[in-house]
## 1
Amino acid sequence: MISVETFQTIQQASSAMTGNTAYLGGGTLLMRTLNYGEQDFEKIIRSTDNNLKTINDAGDRVIIGAGVTMAQVIAESSLAFLAPVARSVGGPAIRNMATVGGNLFAQHPYGDFTVALLAFDGIVKMDNGSEHDLEQFLSSRDNISGIVSSVSISKPNGQDFKYKKVSRVKPKGISVMSIAAWLPVSAGRPSNVRIAFGAMGTTPLRSKSAEKALEGVSIDASGILPALQALAQDFSPPDDAIASGWYRAQVAPVHLRRLLLGEVEA
Amino acid sequence: MSTIEFRKDIFADERDDNLNTIGKPEIRQDILGHVTGRSPYFDDHKFEGLLHLRCVRSIHHHAKIRSINTSAAEKMPGVVRVILPKDVPHNINTLLSLIGFGRDDEALLQDKKVAYLGEAIVAIVAETELQARNACKAVQVDYEVLPHVLDVEEAIKPSAPIVNDQYPNNTFDYHDLYDHQKLRFGDVEKAFSQADHIVEGEYQMSPIEQAPTETCGAIAAPEQNDRYVCYTSTQALFFSLGTTAKLLDMPSSKLHFVGGTVGGGFGGKVDSLHEPLAVLGAHLTGKPVKYTYDRAEEMQVGAPRGAERWRIKDGVMNDGRIIARQFTGFFDSGAYTRLSSYAIVKGTGHLPGPYTIPNVSSNVYCVYTNRTPATAMRGFGITGVDFSIECHMDKVAEAVGMNPIELRLLNAYRDGDMKAHRRIAKNCALIECVQVAAQKAAWLISPQYNAMSSLKDGGGERAQIPPTMIDDVGKIGERKSREIPTEPSSNGSMSTKPPSTIEFKGVSTAMNTVTPDELARPDLAPPTNTSEIAVPRPVPAAQPQAPQRSTTPYQQPVVTPPSQIAPASAPVVPPSAPVPNEPYKPAGDFQRGTKRPGNSPFVSGTRRR
Amino acid sequence: MSKTPIQFTLNGKPTSVFVNGGANLLEVLRRDVGDMTLKYGCGQGTCGTCTVLIDGEPHLGCLTLAETVEGRQIETVNGMADGPELHPLQKLFMENFAAQCGFCTPGMLMAASSLLNRNPNPSREEVVEAISGNICRCTGYEPIIDAILQAASSLRGRAF
């Protein structure tokens, strides 16, 4: 039936990933498929490689091991800007289990942590040292071989990063959508803007049209209006039990506006 | 410990306050088990060699089954037994056959035609749950997909696909007469013609899943003395036992059912079908067998509160008296009857709501659609129509420019009033509940309305059964041959027959009071010499004196809420309100968690937040 | 089917079992060890009824591969009471009507226990956050929150 093999390093684990295998990260995704008999693997591969749990400051980027949990992110002072994102994932128990690497593979409408990584120009590093731009990784994640070793991201300065997760159930629930907005300021205006959305497509996605429309504008109701209108070009969100695609498309500009302008919700 | 506020001042003389337990907060007798984890839910029993049962389920809303091939599944690792529909000794039932109501229409395992997504076709018993799942995936079912219908009004059209072969009109057959349940009281059409306003509304809800934290399930095992023990999550142990005995053609003396700890039911575990399959599995394998829903099945296959659609039409006088109310209701029973047939009768007995309205008519349909079969949930049969009624009352208040709370108090039933299904109202308390709620919510009502009481102004002429317009429109099958409106017909005849009782075959006497045409129980108030009844006109007779109404609409004045009131005191009489001069509107957009100044009037004694 | 031996500490006692490949901690604790306090509510990590503490931190048994708990400390509700003496959380849940059907209660107690071990003086918001992974369909949560706040206060009183 199902068998389990454990390796010390992810390189060893990776070379064992032949045939019907799956790699166990935090278990929050893999075990769920197994509990429902929806698994397409016969062997679970895991590793006890401690490198996966490290967080390294590398100048203007930070490297987060794929095995770092949401709870670890929250506890790490150098990742304070990501704490609100990690805190929006699941409940306290899930956050002790869910990993940065696993979140890269979460299916719609999950994967909110990855939305923030996408906004920070994430780069995925595999066990064999190869690197992939996160956006490209996401579009081909079903076919990538190897095991994710770490994700590196740019580090923001101060107040230029905003994040919100929209859900129907309070205080915590599955995403109607999540939004990560990084607006680095240069000469008093946003430049090199990144706007990433979760649950608006089959993977977390950037809105390149909105990003372009925010370059150099003043962040007020009229300044951001073209960006809000541009969102529709980049997304055709799916229908699911949480919300219809139509609904998501209608409210995405509303939520982006509220996020950028700091509007308090009723 | 407790944040309960007791209003013992109300109906104080009806009650001795010298009881030791009743009327006092008590710690639940089972909560010690809950906090120690010792409360024994059905799954908290260890069985050596426990096997797991899972079902192959329909992937279509509606389809004929051409063939079922289990040969591959039988050979899979861990599979102990494949249970086919023909293995079920008496493979057809309806829950209420226990009380002789309705026809058997639902198979435990279906091999002819599946009528809802998730309907069980074949059961597989294996050593582990995963093996059972894998084996289910290997069963091949050849379906011939049929057109399906998912809306109640679409389903009663003559062109709709037949969902349930026992009820080819897609409606339950009521009393062998009509395709709906009728209620008639007085002359609604005449009252409409005399009313100052007609207020109409349509209300509906989707199915609502009870979603208990514990999913439905049962474990059955052979016990000593050739019995089967069955631990089950059911809310209705005797229903489950009787249903199992019938489906398995087994004397109930062979069944030892243990229930009592339900991890949340809310009505969703009253007609569970887990015990019959679990016991059958134990019988066929000689081993303990567990059958439970996983969370996905609980949501999709587990019976929800059925969807409902209601149309309400009121005839209202300028002073706020509702003199006529007409209902057209549709219950979505899903593919099979289960409890919906009874829900409609129960709901009909509740109409027109807790109000005395002298002319009432209602047609309620139990409709079959290709949705998940529905069952009970919290207030079963009543909750949906009550939601509709209360939304409608607000509409009526708007139409006549009246304080919506005062409207309810005006029309509320009082002790001694005749209800539309011909029982005298007693122990009414709507007025007192509304008055206390209004005070708590700082909603001003005038002193005259604060002085109203359930004990006053009822009975007398209001206790009479009026001459009633009856019709026989909508006989079973009639809708297939000619177009008939679904609402109560305006073509009827005034019944002058003396009231009589029709025997309700096979149904418990508690249900005899709701009968098809205009009928009354002989044991109720009206005299037997019917030719000399002084029958009041269908337009309302004596009503509590309504205050003079101006023609200008109502607006709730803005005042600061009363300070927190000690429980024993009488309701505070608020100062008189300024004269309104604008149309009634709510004070603001609806918001959750509105913050009011001062102490919350909902707190009494202990601070909750 | 070959089984893997695992050893761990359960409520302070060394425990060992043989588990099937792919078995989750929920089924292992319930079926193989006989601890019925944690429950199956969803198998998806959304309801929290299978919450256990692993090395003092809340985890979900249904999503934990049993083999990963080798050598670790696991706590369930069975470890809360001190012999016949209930833990203040258990007592105050009883007094505050913080359970009706009781199915979510073990998970709530584990979440609360972990919170109070880490934060003896939580705010109401922190209590809400601590139980945000546990679903209750009966109580409306308020009695549970009250019970946890009162237990925190009672435990602080004891510390002297």
## 2
Amino acid sequence: MLGFLSSLAGRILALTVALGALWLLLSFYFDEPTLLGFGAMSVAVTVWLTHHLGILDREGVPTRVFPGILPYMFWLTVEIGKANVIVVREVLRPTLRLSPKMIRVPANQVSDLGRTIFGNSVTLTPGTITVDVDRDTLVIHALTEALADQDAIGDMGDRVTAFDRAEPRTQAVKC
Amino acid sequence: MIDVILDVLSRGLFLLGGLLVFAGALGVLRFPDFYTRMHAAGVTDTMGADLVLLAMALQADDLITIVKLFFIFVFLVLTSPVSTHAAAHAAFVGGLRPLTGADLTPAEEGEGPRPVRAARRTEGAS
């Protein structure tokens, strides 16, 4: 089932369902045939254009990150909450006691998308910002010595790697 | 009864979110250099905005408002790290040296990770 979503037909189905759901949720029209018809038409045109542009591939419609990314997002939200408390405590300290540090953390994700998700997760967590991406390492600026925890950030990277599985490269060519 | 509980919860979240936004602004004023200030701005971007959005969702009286607030949350999560990274990356590649260590001295040339972008470009050219 999940393998099917990585095929071209699977990606077309996934994009159609996602765009249809987006249209319905933003408009909330369920009983206006004319408007629903226009909605269906715009979804169809978008899917056709996406296919025509050749971006209906593992990067344009990354079906492989589902469903693994959902528990990851939940975990990340909790981490962001914890990091916020730490940074706010630093802000409110009567005399600032910062010790900023630059570190390098390996990013071994198989795809560019995985590396992007990892880099963005690091930036989204207050106290750490990805300032540069080398081929397979992230250059990170951390607010304090305690936040510059290479193991904790590496653990975040492993979690991204876990749901960002490899896909055969030929598939991108075929689409 | 449930309305009152939701209302109180919502107002509490508004207050907490507002305080976090304020703390972010205070951090931007207090922190010593560009990179550290970006961390403070991150508090406003994430927890501050999220709590205010959650509070608004509790005030909403129909589903469509909640769905739209959820979309705002999703797009905020997707775009805010990209803009933060763009600004920080531009400063880093542009040669702005971060203050490092407990004594906040500017990182010396060659100390710590350096911008790799320029080096790679010359590699490709040769």
## 3
Amino acid sequence: MIRIAALKRLWRRTVWRFQSTLTFRMTLFYGALFAAVSMLSLYGTRKAIESYAESQIRREMTVGSALFDRIAAMQFHQLTQAGNVLASDFGFREAVGTNDAATIASALQSLQGRFKIDHAMFVSIDGVVAGRADGLSVDDQTQLFDTLDAGRERGIVRWRGQSHMVAAAPVRAPMLMGWVVFARNMGPTDLRQLAKLSSIDLHPQLVPLTGATRRSTQVQEVDRDGERILSWARPVPALVEAAPQRLVLEYSLTRALQGYAPILWALLGFGALGLLLAIAGAFAASRRLARPIIALEAAARKVSAGEHAQVEVETRDEIGRLARSFNRMVTAVEERERQIAHMAFHDSLTGLANRTLLREQIALALHRHGGVDFALFCLDLDNFKAVNDTLGHPTGDALLCEVATRLAETCPQGFVARLGGDEFAVIVQDGSGAADQTGRAIVQALTRPFTVNGHRIVTGGSVGIALAPQDGQDATSLLKNADLALYRAKHDGKGSHRFFENAMDAEAQARRAMEVDLHDALRNGELELHFQPLFGLSQNRVTAFEALMRWNHPVRGMVSPIDFIPLAEETGLIIPIGEWALHEACRIAMSWGDDIRVAVNVSPVQFRSSTLNSIVLQALARSGLEPQRLELEITESLFIDNVEATLASLHSLKVLGVRVALDDFGTGYSSLSYLRSFPFDKLKIDRSFIVDLLANKGATAIIRAITTLADALGIETTAEGVESSEQLDILRSEGCNQIQGYLFSRPIPAADVPALLVKLSGSRMAA
Amino acid sequence: MYYLRLAPLALTCLAAPALAGDLNLKLVDAAGRPVADAVVTVRPAGGIPPGPIRFPWATTMVQQNIAFAPHVLVVPVGTTVRFPNKDKVRHHVYSFSKPAKFEIKLFGQDETRSYTFTSTGAVALGCNIHDQMSGFIKVVDTPFAIKSDAAGSAHLAGMATGTAQVTIWHPLLKTKDNEMVVNVPIPGSGAASKTVPLTLRSGR
């Protein structure tokens, strides 16, 4: 059942497809047209034949009717002549005059035989009928006499169901004695003789005109048993005026048309043959017409499938022109496709390959048979943002073009791509392990100054290198790994190149995980402030606590700020975290004695944000802490980028009344100039100097120099990382104001602060 | 009409029976036209008076110009009628009528034959040579006989008072023997006038 249904469906679809073709429709149209024309001509011919036949029959009827009249006239004449012969015979007149019935009868009989007359009678003036009147009824006889007496002497009469032609001759002896009446039978047989005289048998009949048959004298068409018959009834001269007679002529139109049937059949046959020819012709012509269209359709199908296709131009007609236009269109579309493809795979600015094409190239190189080794270099410019910001985008774009040119020159065998912004990538075949050299060459090439739009620009670049196939089996991982190496290179100091190592990957993943966790840490309350006391040597007590961030990770446990603060700074999370720390530190400090300050570290990221001032104000306002009890610790690195802006920010903080301490003093780009520019409240001597105190004599000198300088400027000093009493002694003797370190206490939770204060006041006693 | 009926009645009552009366007949056809050559014979109430009968006209039937002249001749019974041929052609006079069947072959000009009519009745004369020739001899047995003139009038006088049997004959009259009978009362004095319509066969 299912197979039959499927076959049916297939058949229907095939039929439908054929029906929807141009060939089918044209064939159908011309076939139908020809059939209609044939039918029309057949119909017309039939009508014409019918009309012709009818007119022929009518003419024959007219002729037949005239013939009848002539023959009737002739017969009447003959009968009259015969009657006159008898009526004027003296002997017959004597017999009539003497009423000699026997003689009359014999005379009639004799003449009847001589003239071959059917009825011969003598009607006397008294109405007595003599002779062969045996066939006539009394009514007929009376009627005959009345007619003769009225002066009618010839005509057709109906006797005993048969028509007769009657002619009478008066007998005078010398008075009118009666009439000799001669009649000739006009029965069907006699009429058939008459019919033979006309070219077609009109079936002449003489019938009495009764009320029921009184019709028009026109030729009429009647239907008799399915036969179409033309009938004409016309009056004939009747003997008895009260019994009119008529001649009926008939001919079957159906029979007449049968004679023409062969013509119609032949026409039908030729029409059918013509129809077949027309269908075949239309089919062939439409096939011829449709063939180039089918070719065009196939070509269009190929083009839509993405193949190249051209059709053969065979003619100069519309279809030929269409084919030519189609070919042109295909060429144009392909050209445009090439342009679009180029745009899709190339960077519009530099003309280099883009990331998509690079990935394809990487994939291609990876799958290339033989598995040739290659190196993927990812690089970016070190100071491109500054170039864009200071010299404008047009110059920045021109610089990127220059970089592209230089990269192409540096790696003539390599495949150079621009990934976006100032990021570029190069693929170089690395058969001989020359990636290191290439990396160095690229760095050097970027280090050389550029001259762009009249500007001399010194930029540099960092390069990360991933080697295929060992550093990645696909484009994604290779690019990622090269990026990691680039990140490491930039991290380790700009203007260098680094190879990817697996550790980088693990590290990056760990960082990523931590980043995600850090996002939730603040909200989940995993962050916590610990406090490390600063012990005032002159006051001999704890003068302040430094708030230090702790992250109690639910899985990792305590996470060192060294691990997560840089991450927070990188991701910008430091802003909300720092805000929280300020609020928290101020809140907790309120629970301490009024003479104890709280110190909070401010990240450079935080410092540069425009919201720092308002956050400090809010923290003070919400906690109620006096401004001078809050000490913000900043690092020297702030001065590297923009000294002016940093100083402006510091001054605005100072206006709030808070204290500002310079953290990690002595490391990095320590410059004395900004000590002069800004009235720091405190210098925190870096722990590296403290560690060296016991081992290195010079360290003591540095401490002394710092404290002397600070004293001179009216700045407090705090030593960090003090772990032994020996260190404490030296610092105390060198005039350091405060001590911070494990010697007194490691950072402790806020809850432990009161206990610590008690303990330290005890130890102070001991000291 | 009223007066016509009353007048004869009055006359009959007033007149003396011995007196003789007249008869004035007017003969017309169906169309009212006067009918000539109709023969009127009367048998009076008292019967036909005895004695020979004489008429004031000749008893000759002439054939002249291929016709009989006169067309109708009234003769008493027993009269011998002469048949003179005044034409240059020959005639063959015949009669098939019952009162007198005869043939007279008149082959010469001015040749005269005669025939004696012994029976009363109408005798139709024809010529076997000339079919169109037709003539009639009316043989009567009463002195009261006359043929109508061109105006259709027939006048008889001197008949006995009383109902007279009037017989009218005409060759085309559509009755048996081409005659009809009417009874007319004859007054003692004066005339009985009557118009008699006749039904005639069309002239053939």
## 4
Amino acid sequence: MRRLAILALLALLLSVPLWVGNFYVLHVLIVTGIFTIAAMSLNLLLGYTGQLSLGHAVFFGIGAYVSALVSLGFAVHLAPDWLVTLDPQPVWLAMLCAVAIAGLCGWAIGRVSFKVRGAYFVIVTISFAEVARLVALNWDELTQGPMALNNIPPLAVSLPGLDEFDFIGKVPNYYLVLVAAILAYVVIARLVHSRAGRAMIALKENEPLASSVGIEVTRYLVLAAVVSAAIAGAAGALYAHYIQIVDPNVFMFLYTVTMVIMVVAGGKGTLAGPIVGGLIFGLLPEVLRSFAIRPEVQWVAYGVLMILIVYLLPNGIVPAVASLWNRAGRADAPAAPTTGSSPGRIVP
Amino acid sequence: MLRVEGLTCRYGKVAAVSELTLEVRQGELVALIGANGAGKTTTLKAISGLVAPVAGRLMFSGRDITGASARHILRLGIAHCPEGRRVFPYMTVLENLQMGSHLRRDRRQVAADMAGLLDRFPILRERRAQTAGTLSGGEQQLLAIARALMSRPKLVMFDEPSLGLAPTIVDRVFDVIKTIQAAGVTVIMVEQNAFAALELSDRAYVIEQGRLTLTGTGRDLLENPRVKAAYLGA
């Protein structure tokens, strides 16, 4: 049953370019897919370790800039007479660099930020994103500042015996993003169901107890941050080579907020949550636009929907649907547990 | 088995525990009693490595464990059953038990131990697929005890095992603790219910404002006029 549903969903996603002829719709789907990957990576931190990082766009932005710079090449003075240059590299290599460096930044930022919790953690992560945006804006020798990095080459792969294939246009990029999203999903699912994943969930639920059963809290938080940052970096790299222009606005707070909305609305701490949330909040603005509603009304509708979801489904869409499903399926069984961060309800 | 010498712990400038010395011998059940904020919980946290002592020495089975990490101390065989929120509320009973064996690699033995504990606590077997947050307070405490045993400890420390439980369940919890001792595991127990703790324990230490004030066998302390006046309400 479950397996069939997954196969049907995969078939549907794979067949989209066959029956969607409209390139604009495909474009919206590609961008939505990229942000869904970023939301999935945020969910690992927010949903599974319970840490709200409001600077998550920093990893997305670092991925975008690193991948763009490595594929374009650069020459930059690290000191007045110390010039570092890099010739343009193949895009696949640039993307790998983006993933690696974003992961490294996740490690460094995690080491610093996880010394504090709660509101302090949120503030530390916001300031990292803001610092990154200011650096991108002002270090024009490297980043071109507000002039942005232009003409970023698209991904090109050459397999032996075949001609080089360029990921130009909507259909190839759609499949590229789809494959990346599936890959990200598998990595996150494997991690969450491993021993390390259980440790992360344990420290979200009860940190003092987790450390008393021998879980090294900081180590697992940093591990989650590294994987999360690397995946967000991959999303940023996909974005850079698809849109082909990167400017300091990729570090904007708005992007982080979009990811948080996707995760919270879809259901944090569930594997499907960020996908559902990502699709809804990625496609919603376009759907509203197709009704020819005025932009200001669109944003009001967006906000109202957000409030409704938070009020009516505090754990998000996926847990709500899952518990409905369970209740319908076996009415006599004890109420299905929901995952969330509210304290445990104790039934006497 | 465990020696605590001159233990001092501070939170900021406030000394929670000062120059505390105590000893626990193999197979004993030792109680720490005292008022709220006397430093009992901090003492347990220092022993299990959750709080770093400012001064003093902790020796366990001839090894110096002062300043060792919580996981190292757990590996050596000291399990800690903390007070307050005792379980992982959104994990199932089985997952909670698995967390107790987080550091163990001997999967087959872990499975056998888990089956043994579920035999011993049939209520947990009955509720094994339920999330721990849906259990009653007493069931949660039994789960917490079983989880502590999953690490195969040589010494278990219980922090306020009776807190917030109905009187009939308190008796059940104390019975379980007694059987743990009978099985050869050394036990340290922090209790506000001084009467029950003194009846149950072989020896007890009275802690006041972070300092040790009295020590003796449970029976002796039950008869001690000072203890009677301060903790037994007689």
